[in-house]
Design goal:
The protein has about 450 residues and is of the alpha+beta class. The protein contains 16 helices and 14 strands. The longest helix has 30 residues.
Length: about 450
């Protein structure tokens, strides 16, 4: 029969001796406490900065408060993350070293036992993880704007101090990423597109495959609805006028703005109005609006689709580099890039083009270049070298001519001849397109 280990363990525990606290011990306890607080702040800042949503960043840009340090740090997120990791690891290592030394001078463990190691691992690690990692990260995840504002200036100073180390870490990471990319498959999107071109038949399945291939190369600006075509409501409109706009537009979600479309306050979901249809003009319908989300023009639509799925949104306000609203983009717009035009019984039958014959079409000038090339089965990269920042047929004409053309003007961009059929003082309205060859 083996000896019972319990008495042996109890004897070892009874043999542990505690030394009295002195000035040195109090100083070490104070230093450990300060370092744990610093670790908590840094850990919380890591979550806070990277939990900020695009809409919150947009609000920070418009806010009168001094948020310049947050915006500066977010301009280089890799450097910010590297600084946070370096500082946090430095603090945590310091806590472990000081705590180990404090344990050694306050507690005398039996010689030859592993109690000192077990004590340090369990107690010190538990305190560090709970107070220095879990608690601050849970709080900062719920209050990202407040926490990031509080930590923006300290992190800006630390980012400056540790810049040489963070720059070295970021550079080495990029080098590793490059090495890993070199080992990846050499097949790219262009080669897949060429493989699709070699197929003999043109079917709906092939068109969808081609759309999927090009999906990751399309940004929001190319598919958004321009602000001039957006149906929106001013926040001070009386309720009866709001209902008229809702009925005439047929849309299920309508942006609400203050004074001008650049100041979008929210999105009115028409289903939220149903219980209040019999209210009078004094009804405060603005309180039914939901918070909008903002996306930059340059966001790729494959990323936007994931964002829509994660946040269960169907509409976003598109903003330019200056923070102004360029238009809106919907989940339907994104999906149409894969499966083609989606129409239901509530959609208006608005013909954006008419086909005269196999070589001649008439298009609305606001038709996007992507849609135009899909309709005529052209190469989606046909205008990449000349279109500049333009994303519509009208924009392409203006980019090439440098002026608003007159009715009857012909602009040749091989293999197309564009004939201006309708124009006003501010924009081109309708264009006839002749295809010489494809």
């Amino acid at each position: 029969m083996k000896d019972d280990p319990l008495p042996l363990v109890l004897n070892l525990l009874y043999s542990i001796e505690f030394n009295s606290l002195n000035l040195e011990s109090y100083l070490f306890i104070l230093m450990i406490f300060i370092l744990i607080v610093c670790s908590a702040l840094i850990s919380g800042a890591e979550v806070a900065f990277f939990a900020l949503e695009i809409s919150e960043i947009h609000e920070l840009k418009k806010s009168k408060k001094n948020n310049k340090y947050i915006l500066r740090l977010l301009k280089n997120p890799n450097s910010l993350l590297a600084t946070i990791l370096i500082v946090n690891n430095f603090i945590n290592v310091s806590i472990v070293i000081l705590a180990s030394y404090l344990t050694s001078i306050l507690i005398q463990f039996p010689e030859g036992s592993n109690f000192e190691f077990i004590f340090q691992v369990i107690i010190i690690t538990s305190i560090l993880v709970f107070f220095g990692e879990i608690t601050p990260k849970l709080y900062s995840n719920q209050n990202p704007v407040k926490f990031s504002s509080f930590m923006s200036y300290p992190l800006y100073i630390l980012n400056t101090i540790f810049y040489p180390f963070s720059a070295l870490l970021v550079s080495s990471t990029k080098l590793i990423e490059k090495k890993l990319e070199d080992k990846k498959s050499d097949i790219n999107v262009d080669e897949i597109s060429k493989a699709l071109d070699l197929t003999t038949s043109i079917s709906n399945e092939q068109k969808i495959l081609r759309s999927i291939v090009e999906f990751g190369n399309t940004d929001v600006k190319e598919i958004m609805k321009s602000r001039v075509d957006v149906v929106a409501i001013e926040k001070d409109e009386i309720f009866s006028n709001v209902l008229k706009v809702v009925i005439s537009s047929g849309f299920s979600r309508i942006p609400i703005f203050d004074n001008q479309f650049d100041n979008v306050l929210g999105i009115l979901y028409i289903k939220d109005l149903i219980p209040f249809l019999d209210m009078n003009d004094d009804f405060k319908w603005i309180e039914l609006c939901r918070a909008p989300i903002f996306v930059p023009e340059t966001k790729m639509i494959n990323v936007l689709l994931k964002e829509f799925q994660a946040k269960k949104h169907h509409i976003a306000i598109v903003v330019d580099e200056y923070g102004g609203a360029s238009g809106i983009v919907t989940l339907e717009d994104v999906l149409e890039e894969i499966v083609g035009e989606i129409n239901d019984e509530f959609d208006h039958d608005e013909t954006k083009y008419s086909k005269l014959d196999s070589k001649n079409y008439v298009f609305e000038a606001k038709t996007s270049l992507n849609d135009f090339l899909k309709i005529i089965n052209g190469d989606l990269g046909s205008f990449d070298d000349i279109k500049g920042e333009s994303d519509s047929l009208a924009g392409l004409i203006l980019e090439v001519t440098g002026k608003i053309p007159l009715i009857g003007d012909k602009i040749e961009i091989k293999p197309f001849i564009f004939l201006i059929e309708s124009v006003d003082l501010r924009r081109i309205k309708r264009i006839k397109v002749t295809i010489n060859e494809l």
